[in-house]
């Protein structure tokens, strides 16, 4: 593996020139352990690194702190740090997949940096939803990455259904590549591979159960290996606490997969849900009391609007259920995190087992 395989290019090299003078080395972050990070060096060696004090203090917001996928400048073996290296600088991001609640001044949360292409995975049937697709396109566009759509589980649908779904996507976003796959029958996954090339990073988003893991498993293939395992033989990197989020795919290219990416749909749903009731907030501003319960309260503008017929009672009932609905979403989100936690532990276990086998334990 070389730096180029990890996505290094002449632009990054130019930006890095001043850091080279300090004897620092370029590396790409592959894991966020909160306290430390996992990073790949150009030769594929994996190191455990910590955040340099000035990088931390100079960051005005959390979004400026290094994230998985970022390129950083490392000072190897810096004194006074317990890790292999220290991050002295973060290089500019080509793209940035982040979560930013609309309307609020809430802090931006970076999910992955330098993802080149995001595949939206759905199916031609139950999961297919044009509005949701539009929101995915929005998030992807904001990130700077290129979109593509995978219609998976085509084995469960007629050619006609698949064709219609494909047309609908193409109507929403002309020119977007739409791939038909069946991860189950291992068909069409090659068409995803045709988008991969050394140095290119992809991510998969989509509802729970559409087949993202199945597709990832096929992309990783049988010979899937933990790159950087060699270094684990030195004992370094063994104190890792979470699973790798950036994976190298056989044949070239990388995949970033982490809980934040998996939850893209959930948080977009919560935001859209709130936004779809923004007219209520406008009307509620006219209520006599600021803490109006919109029930029997005096001077309630919502009730007045319902009485006038300008606001439907049905929507009002849905509005009242909003909190419940948001609660349900957050519950689903927690459930997802538990599933991901399990998967990460499984991966860590198989990694440990591989390591033990290698060492002859
Ligand atoms: N029939 C059919 N089933 C599929 C296909 N791809 C995946 N499945 C099944 O769908 C179920 C969900 O697949 P996953 O790969 O776990 O879905 P996911 O998107 O990773 O779900 P989360 O991990 O919850 O985000 C599994 O039972 C798969 O075997 C397909 O192409 N056809
Ligand atoms: Zn009111």
From TrEMBL:
Its cofactor is Zn(2+). The keyword S-adenosyl-L-methionine does not apply. Residues 333-346 have a biased composition (Basic residues). Its EC number is 3.6.1.-. GTP binds at residues 152-155, 206-214. Zn(2+) binds at residues 287, 292, 294, 300. One of its GO terms (cellular component) is cytoplasm. GO terms for molecular function: GTP binding; GTPase activity; metal ion binding; rRNA binding. Residues 113-262 form the EngC GTPase domain. Gene3D superfamilies: P-loop containing nucleotide triphosphate hydrolases, Probable gtpase engc, domain 3. It is an enzyme of class 3 (hydrolase). Its main location: cytoplasm. The keyword RNA-binding applies. Keywords: Cytoplasm, GTP-binding, Hydrolase, Metal-binding, Nucleotide-binding, Ribosome biogenesis, RNA-binding, rRNA-binding, Zinc. Binds 1 zinc ion per subunit. It is found in: Cytoplasm. One of its GO terms (biological process) is ribosomal small subunit biogenesis. Residues 107-264 form the CP-type G domain. Belongs to the TRAFAC class YlqF/YawG GTPase family. RsgA subfamily. NCBIfam families: ribosome small subunit-dependent GTPase A. Monomer. Associates with 30S ribosomal subunit, binds 16S rRNA. PANTHER family: SMALL RIBOSOMAL SUBUNIT BIOGENESIS GTPASE RSGA. One of several proteins that assist in the late maturation steps of the functional core of the 30S ribosomal subunit. Helps release RbfA from mature subunits. May play a role in the assembly of ribosomal proteins into the subunit. Circularly permuted GTPase that catalyzes slow GTP hydrolysis, GTPase activity is stimulated by the 30S ribosomal subunit. This is Small ribosomal subunit biogenesis GTPase RsgA. It comes from Puniceicoccus vermicola.
